[in-house]
């Protein structure tokens, strides 16, 4: 396609949520409260894990890093979405759109890797309790976190280097609440079939493979515990249930969005809201409501 014959796109229009003014205000208030709770809840977890010596354990160290990634993931898209609910023209610049996609996949890829690290931590804690502190040393924990960020960076860069130079010269309407990789690619003025397959292989398979690995690891833990003691099985289920909930709610929407990213359907926006607005809030809710120790530590923060 001759790009010179078309108008060069410098900004995109986000359709976001349509409806009456009253509905827009309702969404604004609801998402503002959820985002505020997300920031507050995850910040509290990070503060407690960092400054309370009783939480200086491998599990809480990884939980603190997960809270940071959740907060960052939500911040990439949610404030812009909330602000757009009060504006008639929901516009984002070309480079603002590129930045959203870069950081979405950076934090998303890093969080997927960290969740696998948390599964490894639970495996060692439940199946090898006598060697737990030796195996999950500070060096290993720091290595897990560094590896998570490296994988997240490689994951996002492998896609962005191919997308950043795509020509956009015609359509600039994105039917979503933020710049989503599959939808932006479809707006390019060139044939993108090969690039679409690469995104499916990169983002879609990464999500699916990580999810399967996590389910397999949890199954191995439960089978190992069950073979040792039926009483231990119930305790293991209680310990792992929070992790399984977080993993399912995080990976479910990602798999639906990126494993079949170029088949649009009515629930796209719902899934987008779920894993960028609701899921980052589930981390502090699940871990604080299930942990009396965490609840006690939070109460001590208030005068």
Task: Name a few traits of the molecule.
303 residues, mainly alpha, Rhopdopsin 7-helix transmembrane proteins, three-stranded mixed β-sheet, 10 helices, 74% helix, globular, disordered N terminus
What does this structure look like?
With 303 residues, the protein is mostly helical. 74% of the residues lie in helices and 3% in strands. The chain has a 3-stranded mixed β-sheet with strand order 2-1-3. Helix 1 runs parallel beside helix 9 (268-290), helix 2 (58-84) runs antiparallel to helix 3 and helix 9 (268-290) crosses helix 10 (292-301).
Topology summary:
Blueprint: E1 11-14, H1 21-51, H2 58-84, E2 91-93, H3 94-127, H4 132-135, H5 138-163, E3 173-174, H6 181-185, H7 193-228, H8 230-258, H9 268-290, H10 292-301
Parallel strand pairs: 1-3
Antiparallel strand pairs: 1-2
Helix pairs in contact: 1-2, 1-9, 2-3, 2-9, 3-5, 3-7, 3-8, 5-7, 7-8, 8-9, 9-10
Count the beta strands: 3
The strand order across the widest sheet is 2-1-3
Integer average pLDDT: 83
Derived from helix and strand composition plus strand pairing, the structural class reads mainly alpha
Helical proportion, percent range:
over 70%
Number of helices: 10
Global Rg: 21 Å
Q: Which parts are unreliable, with pLDDT below 50 for 5 consecutive residues or more?
A: 1-6
Largest sheet: 3 strands, mixed
Write down the overall geometry. globular
Distance between the termini: 65 Å
Order of helices and strands: EHHEHHHEHHHHH
Q: CATH homologous superfamily name?
A: Rhodopsin 7-helix transmembrane proteins
Portion of residues in beta strands equals under 5%
How many domain modules? Answer: 1
CATH architectural grouping: Up-down Bundle
CATH fold label:
Rhopdopsin 7-helix transmembrane proteins
CATH top level label: Mainly Alpha
